[in-house]
Amino acid sequence: MTKNTPTKRPLRLRTRQVRAGLSRTGFSETNEAIFMNSGYVYGSAQEAEESFDGTRDRMVYSRFKNPTVAVFEERLAALEGAEACRATASGMAAVHAALVCQLKSGDRVVAPRALFGSCTWIIGDLLPRFGIEVEFIDGTDTAQWERALSRPTQVVFLETPSNPTLEIVDLARVAELTHKAGGRLVVDNVFATPIFQAPLSLGADVVVYSATKHIDGQGRCLGGAVLGSAEFCNDVLGPYLRHTGPALSPFNAWVLLKGLETLDLRVECHAANAFTVARFLESRPEVARVLYPGLESHPQHTLAKSQMCGYGGVVAFEMKGGKDAAYKLLDGLEVIDISNNLGDSKSLVCHPWTTTHQRLTPEQKAEQGITEGLLRLSVGLEDADDLVDDLRLALES
Ligand SMILES: *Cc1c(COP(=O)(O)O)cnc(C)c1O
Question: Shortest CA distance to 117 belongs to which of 344, 355, 349, 375?
Answer without folding.
Answer: 355
